[in-house]
Design a protein that fits this description.
By secondary structure, the chain is mainly alpha-helical. The protein is 64% helix and 0% strand. It has a single domain, classed as 434 Repressor (Amino-terminal Domain) (Orthogonal Bundle).
Length: 81
């Protein structure tokens, strides 16, 4: 891997970690267990667990389904360095 590839890899991993943190933080902010979040968004609890642990990369559709059930959406914004 060259320097550019390494920098891109690091950036993508950082953004992924930030997303996972925000996803779990939202669930806690809403006072929900993984099971409750799954039931209210009509997805399997196993999917919520795998998203939160980084073992599953959700599709945009899955995220809209989960987040939309609680009045949230995704937003595109400039990366802060």
């Amino acid at each position: 891997m060259n320097k550019k590839d390494i920098e891109e890899y690091v950036m993508i991993n950082k953004l992924n970690q930030e997303f996972l943190f925000d996803f779990v933080t939202l669930r806690h902010k809403l006072g929900l267990s993984q099971e409750e979040m799954a039931q209210k968004s009509n997805v399997l609890r196993d999917k919520i667990t795998k998203i939160e642990t980084g073992r599953y990369s959700p599709t945009i559709t899955s995220l809209f389904k989960i987040l939309g059930a609680f009045g949230y959406t995704l937003k595109i914004e400039k990366i802060k360095k």
